[in-house]
Amino acid sequence: QVQLVESGGGLVQAGDSLRLSCAASGRTLSQYVMGWFRQAPGKEREFVAGISWSGWSGGHTTYADSVKGRFTISRDNAKNTVYLQMNSLKPEDTAVYYCAVDKALLRKVPVTTNSEYIDWGQGTQVTVSS
Predict the structure, then answer these.
(1) Torsion (CA) 127, 16, 101, 55 in degrees, nearest 10
(2) What digits encode the pLDDT tens for the residues 40-57?
């Protein structure tokens, strides 16, 4: 089905910013919720941010409390790409970041459970040093 490729990760210092990209191919994703998840070593994969289909309202976004106010998810449907702008990075943000496609079409509000996402990218490493 769809192929997702994350990019933009790297090694940064606390307080720095990164912009992650998730480029999709094989299917147009404008009608699907897209989500960003992360997984730190020894930890469960957790929801970071999600954005709904770009309908009349332009989409609805949802964020984990730990990143609210620092991270911003957006999408460019013309490029079939989803972004995660990460500002004021903290060491606890260190993880492999994955983008994923919701299994449901035209969902109005992003879901936060990873079992609801059916297609996943390979991930990009984000390391934040102190």
Answers:
(1) 180
(2) 999 999 999 999 976 655
